[in-house]
Recover the amino acids of this structure.
C-alpha cells in the first residue's frame, strides 16, 4: 500500500483509509464478527488509517474497534492510526444537537479513548460545528487536548475553507473531512486548494458516491429500508434511476480498462492531490479488496480526460443531503 502524510505532522498513513461507520447498521446490518474480519483484512492490506466517531451507532463503532484491538494486542494498536470525532449529541428530548463546549469535547474524547482501549488517538475531529462557539475558541480547546497527550492532531468535519483558515491561525489543523468523489465535487470550490496550501489533509468520505460509483449500485428498494438513504435526494425517484443510468458509461469504462468500478473511482480521487485521503467504508471483504486496488492504478492524462468526459462536474441528479441532513455541514462557494 502506498503511503501518504497525514496533516502538518506528516504522520505516514496508507493512501486509503477505512470509514468505520460501516461497523454500525447505517447501510445495513453489521455484526461484530464481520467488523473484526474487516479490521483483520485492513491489516493484511496495509490499511493503517481507521476513521470512526462517537456518533456512529452511539459508540458501537468505537467499541467494536476497541474489542478487536484488545484481542490483537499492542502490535495492532501501534499499526492503526485512529481518528475519531465528537460534537454531535442529543438533548433531553432525544433531539440531535451540537456541542463544542470544552467540557463536552474533553469528556467525549475521554469516553472514546475508553471505548477504543487506547491512551491516544492520531486525530480528533469536531464532527459538527456548534455556532455558540467561534471556531477560534474551538481550535483553542482542541489545542489543549493535544497538550494533554490524548490526541496527536486535530481536525474538523464539513467546514468551509474560510473557517479552516481561521482555525489554522490558532493551531495547525491536521485534517478536514468532507464528502468528495466523482459525484460530489463541491470541495473543488476552494477546499481542495486551501487544504493543500495549509498542509492540511483532505479526508474524503463517501468516495464511491454511496455505491453509485461501483459495479453494484444500491437499488431503490434497499434505499427505502435505510433511514438516511430513503430521504436522500440522490436516491429518490426519479433521481435514483437517472443516476444509475448516468454512471453506466463509467462502469463500462472501468471494465474496458480492466478495473472494478469502485477501484477506478478511488484511483481518480487519489489523483486529485497528494494531500487527499479517501476513507471508503464497506461490510464486504471482497469490496474492501476492490477499493484498495485503486491505490495501485496509475492514471494517465488521457484516462483522466476520459473519466471527466463521462462524468463531468455537475452530472449527478439531486442534492447530496436532504434538508434535515444539511443541518450542521457548512456550505460555501
Amino acid at each position: 500500500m502506498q503511503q501518504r502524510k497525514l496533516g502538518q505532522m506528516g504522520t505516514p498513513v496508507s493512501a486509503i483509509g477505512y470509514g468505520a461507520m460501516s461497523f454500525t447498521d447505517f447501510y445495513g446490518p453489521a455484526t461484530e464478527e464481520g467488523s473484526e474480519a474487516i479490521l483483520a483484512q485492513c491489516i493484511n492490506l496495509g490499511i493503517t488509517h481507521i476513521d470512526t466517531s462517537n456518533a456512529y451507532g452511539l459508540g458501537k463503532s468505537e467499541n467494536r474497534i476497541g474489542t478487536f484491538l484488545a484481542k490483537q494486542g499492542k502490535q495492532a494498536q501501534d499499526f492503526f492510526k485512529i481518528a475519531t470525532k465528537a460534537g454531535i449529541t442529543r438533548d433531553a428530548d432525544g433531539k440531535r444537537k451540537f456541542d463544542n463546549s470544552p467540557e463536552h469535547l474533553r469528556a467525549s474524547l475521554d469516553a472514546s479513548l475508553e471505548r477504543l482501549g487506547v491512551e491516544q488517538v492520531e486525530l480528533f475531529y469536531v464532527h459538527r460545528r456548534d455556532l455558540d462557539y467561534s471556531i477560534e475558541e474551538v481550535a483553542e480547546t482542541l489545542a489543549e487536548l493535544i497538550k494533554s497527550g490524548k490526541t496527536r492532531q486535530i481536525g474538523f468535519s464539513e467546514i468551509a475553507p474560510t473557517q479552516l483558515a481561521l482555525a489554522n491561525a490558532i493551531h495547525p489543523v491536521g485534517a478536514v473531512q468532507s464528502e468528495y468523489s466523482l459525484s460530489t465535487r463541491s470541495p473543488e470550490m476552494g477546499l481542495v486548494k486551501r487544504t493543500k496550501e495549509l498542509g492540511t489533509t483532505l479526508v474524503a468520505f463517501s468516495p464511491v458516491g454511496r455505491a453509485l460509483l461501483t459495479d453494484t449500485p444500491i437499488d431503490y428498494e434497499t434505499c427505502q429500508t435505510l433511514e438516511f438513504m430513503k430521504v436522500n435526494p440522490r436516491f429518490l425517484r426519479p433521481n435514483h434511476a437517472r443516476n444509475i443510468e448516468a454512471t453506466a458509461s463509467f462502469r463500462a469504462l472501468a471494465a474496458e480498462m480492466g478495473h472494478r468500478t469502485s477501484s477506478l473511482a478511488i484511483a481518480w480521487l487519489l489523483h486529485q492531490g497528494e494531500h487527499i485521503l479517501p476513507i471508503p467504508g464497506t461490510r464486504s471483504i471482497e469490496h474492501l479488496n476492490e477499493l484498495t486496488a485503486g491505490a495501485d492504478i496509475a492514471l494517465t492524462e488521457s484516462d483522466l480526460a476520459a473519466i471527466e468526459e463521462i462524468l463531468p462536474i455537475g452530472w449527478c441528479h439531486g442534492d447530496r443531503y436532504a434538508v434535515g441532513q444539511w443541518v450542521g455541514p457548512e456550505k460555501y462557494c
Summary: The chain is about 40% helix and 15% strand. The longest strand covers residues 151-157.
